[in-house]
Every structure is written in C-alpha cells, then in structure tokens.
Amino acid sequence: MEFGMPMLINLVGMSVALYLIVVAAAWLGQRHLMYVPDPTRVLPVSAGLHDVREQVLLTGDNVRIVCWRADARPGLPTILYLHGNAGNLAGRADRFRRYQTRGFGMMMMSWRGYGGSGGSPTETHNVADAKLAYDTLRAEGIAAGHIVVYGESLGSGVAIQLAGERPVAALVLDAPYTSIVDVALLTYPYLPVRPLLLDRYESDRHIKRVHAPVLVLHGERDLVIPVRMGQAIYELSPEPKKLALFPSGGHVDLDEHGAVDVVATWAEEMVEGKPPTPLR
Q1: What is the dihedral of CA 219, 251, 95, 125, to 10 degrees?
Q2: Each residue of 33-79: pLDDT tens digit?
Q3: How far is CA 68 from the centre of its chain?
Q4: DSSP E strands: which ranges in 39-83?
C-alpha cells in the first residue's frame, strides 16, 4: 500500500494532535497522578493504637488537618511524620506503633484530602501545613531540639523544606528524591515534564538550606524512587549525616529490614548531642 503526500501529512497531523491531547490531559490531571489519597478518616483506636489521640489543626484558610498524636517519654524526641503520596494514616499504624513503643512522641499528619483532612493537596499547602504542625508542637512546649522531622517518600520533599525554615534536632529522609520532576521523567519520558509540573518538590535545591543532622534511608531494590536519588540527596546534605542503605529493601518495607532501629538510635544521639554511631 502506497502513501501519497496528502495522506502522510494527515497522519503526521493526527499524530501531533493526539500527542497534544495526551500532553493536555497529563497537565490537567497531574495532581491526580501525583497524589493518591484514601480520604477515609480512621480513629487511632480503630487502627489498634489505644494510647494515641486524634488532634485536628485548623489552617489559616480554615481547612481541618487530621493528625495522630502520642506524647514522648521524658528525654526522648517527638517525631513529626510526613507521609507519602498514597493511602492514609491507618496504613502507617504499625510504623507509628513501633516508634511509640520505644517511647518516642509522634505527630503524624494527614495531607489535605487524606484521612479526613479537608481540601486538596498541593506542594504549597503541604509545606504550609507541615509548618503549622511544627508550630503546634512548639506551642505545646516541645523544644526544637527535641523535634525530629521524618519525611516518607513524597513527604521527604516537604520535610526538607520544613527543616530549611525551622530549627529541628534531626531530619530523617525515607526514600528521598532529587525532585519530583526527575521522578516524573523516569515514568513519563515521552512527556515535556519539566515545563509542565506545578508541584516540583526540588529537594536537591532545598537541601542546601538545611542545617540539621540528616539521616537518609533507601532500599537498594526501590523500584519507585531509585537509590541513586537518595545517594544524591545524601551527598548534598550537611554534616553530620548518615546514609543507611538496605540491600533487600524496596520502597515501603524498610522497617522490615531494621530501619526503625537505625532511626531510633540516630534520633536519640542527635537529641543528646552524641556523635553518630557508624553503620555496620
């Protein structure tokens, strides 16, 4: 079958039009691709956490942010936990329990649209809400030197920005990325991602403003955020810092490979001002 020039031009035109439709759909729906919330509001007791209370924060634009809270035992830090892009707090109840059992205080907050929180998530809102959670802890009398900010996956980008603007005892980054732009380029190499993304979470730029000790956790079998991104963030981080790689770890299973012990030891050392323990 032979193609004449008019038919070829039509095929090219249709291909270009189809590509532009795909680009437009990706641009319009990008936040639906980035944020995958479970909006179900679950009380801590329903998730098996009997000594944990729900705490609701009210933002400056009158949006209710749902948090789970537990107090620290004397002398131990409080972890301000910023979760990843999917699910809700109930899916992280076991992690909450592990740190609570060790005596750590916890504030685990739901992004907008997640777990009973109102509104819709954006980078600007997530960073502002994390600052509100931090300021709430400080208003409750918790010293900056006893607050450890923990960012999980997407939350690592928020955690870095928060630690760049607020004093903290330590910063824990679980599966961090250099930027969401870089992550998106891996998933959608055929799209003009760089100019299109609204929420960019440029961690490689913001980490330069952090002056707190940094612990980077990354699974070497992480298929969502490659370990090289975690290593890059580690290289850009200030001293003192520690890189904990888990050869058998994936994206969300580092607790099963000893991450809780690593984090707890690091956090206690940073609060007490001890030199960090070398990894073995």
Answers
A1: 120
A2: 789 999 999 999 999 999 999 999 999 999 999 999 999 999 999 99
A3: 16
A4: 53-58, 64-70, 78-82
Euclidean distance between CA atoms 207 and 20, whole angstroms: 35
How many Å apart are CA 45 and CA 52, to the nearest integer?
7
Task: Name the DSSP class of 85.
Answer: S
Instruction: Confirm whether pTM is higher than 0.70.
Output: yes
Q: How far apart (Å, rounded) are the C-alpha atoms in residues 88 and 207? A: 26
Distance from C-alpha of 183 to C-alpha of 251, rounded to nearest angstrom: 14
Note the helical H segments in 29-92: 30-34
* DSSP for residue 166: S
**Tens digit of pLDDT for each residue in 113-146?**
999 999 999 999 999 999 999 999 999 999 999 9
Q: Which helix (H) or strand (E) holds 250?
A: none
